[in-house]
Structures are given as structure tokens and as C-alpha cells.
Amino acid sequence: MGWRNIYSSMVRFKYLEGDTVAEEITFKSRDELTAYIVNEVVNTTEALEILGCSRQNLNDLVKRGVLTPIKELPRDRLFYKADVLKRKEQAEQRKKQ
Description:
This protein is of the alpha+beta class. The protein is 45% helix and 28% strand. It has four helices and six strands. The longest helix is centred in the C-terminal third of the chain and has 16 residues, at 81-96. Mean pLDDT is 84; it is low at 1-9.
């Protein structure tokens, strides 16, 4: 994951999967970047609400590598919302089987 031109009018963000770029997003303004973060990033509490699980279960998912936080803070983690929703869908599919 990397940032370029963070202080210019355009911010480029590369999301890396292994050694390849999976997605490249360009933000034309700080407001666009902020909107992206608000809409696409969730904290631990939001992830718990989406998944309908306990904090202990979420910690276990992280420990096993099922969910990977994009940032770890002293008392919180940040996750891509899409990753959390994908995990929820996988759990729902298992329940149907």
C-alpha cells in the first residue's frame, strides 16, 4: 500500500496484493479522499456490527488471517468495508449449507 503526491492536488493510492497492484485510485481532492475513507473503511465497532459477532471472535478472525486490518491502533483496528462484507457473506453461505 502506498501514497504518492500526498500534498499535491491529486493523491494516488495503490492497493497491493502480494507483489501486484490490485487497484489504483486517484483522488482529486482531500474531500474525495475523506469521502472514500468514510464510505470504504470501518473500525472495529462497525466491523462487529456488520458481522454480528463478538470482539473475541473478531480478534480470532484477525489472528487466523481471515480478516486483515489495514491499520492497527492501540485500542482499535481499521478494516476495508468490502473485506468485512465478504467475510459476512462467507459466514452466511456456511450457515445455509
